[in-house]
Amino acid sequence: MKVIDQFFTLNNGVKLPKIGFGTWQIKDGDDAYNSVLTALKNGYRHIDTAASYGNEYSVGRAIKDSKIPREEIFVTTKLQSHIKTYEGALKAFDTSLNALDLDYIDLYLIHAPWPWRDVGNADHEGNVLAYQAMESLYKAGKVRAIGISNFDPKDIDNIIKHCKVVPHVNQIAYYIGLDQKETIDYCNKQNILVEAYSPLGTGRLLDHKDIVKMAKKYEVTPAQLCIRYCLQKNTAPLPKSTHESRIIENKNVDFEISLDDMKLLDQVKPNF
Ligand code: A2P
To answer: Is the CB of 237 under 6 A from ligand 1?
Structure first.
């Protein structure tokens, strides 16, 4: 079976398509609508958005217009990172659900442990309150899985200590050269699936000479090599593109990087 049709199984049994379509930095309106529709037309069944991307409305319209049965599409959205109260989280969830025009969300994540204006300064108390709201949405069947994004081990520890549901997913920046070792090891131990955003290093890895060279060896593109690397590290990559040819390219990753070459890629130092 092709990778685009394969799933990871979360720690609650829910199945998540291995490759997701990322929509960060895709403008609301035609750009977001057309790229999500194009991704769905080409076999993607996992769409990742967020309230803070400002494109939920267009993403939702594309999902509807694709005519693909709702239950065949895995939709993730995220709670804005400055919202750190129980009631605030519930209200924000309804706003996202309305914008997407859906009855339920597959995966709802706390976007970050800190508000963007205060990066690095985690609001542990607020994260517990927001997560408890997510637990209630999960219990009510409004979301099929819950989790966090940009959380490091101590941020996750705080959730596990004060909440009931071990997060199903942690979505972090992950690509060749950004090994996130502590967080990955921690998530593996807790059986939390890691999703890799910016698997192409937001495009900046694609002209790295070591990556270009190895891609040639496998007769694939640098983007395909980067995406395949994330999969072989058991993370779910969320490549983003607004071009159909690239959207197609990024799902065609049915090849195997040898263990020796994975080790070589582990040593690559990004030049940005
Ligand atoms: P575009 O949207 O114009 O296609 P990441 O997924 O790591 O955030 O990277 C996204 C960036 O990489 C975007 O700028 C996107 O540009 C570009 N990109 C995505 N897929 C490819 C590809 N297959 N080849 C070249 N550039 C790509």
So the answer is: no
Give the span between the Cα atoms of 26 and 197, in whole angstroms: 14
The per-residue pLDDT for range 162-182, each reduced to its tens digit, is 999 999 999 999 999 999 999
Average pLDDT for 33-40: 98
String of DSSP letters for 61-122: HHHHHHT--GGG-EEEEEE-TT--SHHHHHHHHHHHHHHHT-S-EEEEEE--SS-GGGTT--
Distance CA 223, CA 122 (A): 33
Query: pTM for the whole thing?
Result: 0.98
* CA nearest to 169, candidates 119, 134, 200: 134
Q: Is 246 in the pocket of ligand 1 (CB under 6 A)?
A: yes
Q: What span, in angstroms and rounded, lies between the C-alpha atoms of 189 and 175?
A: 20
Cβ of 206 below 6 Å from ligand 1 = yes
Which of the residues 33, 53, 186, 229 is marked catalytic? 53
What residue's CA is closest to ligand 1, atom 6? Answer: 239
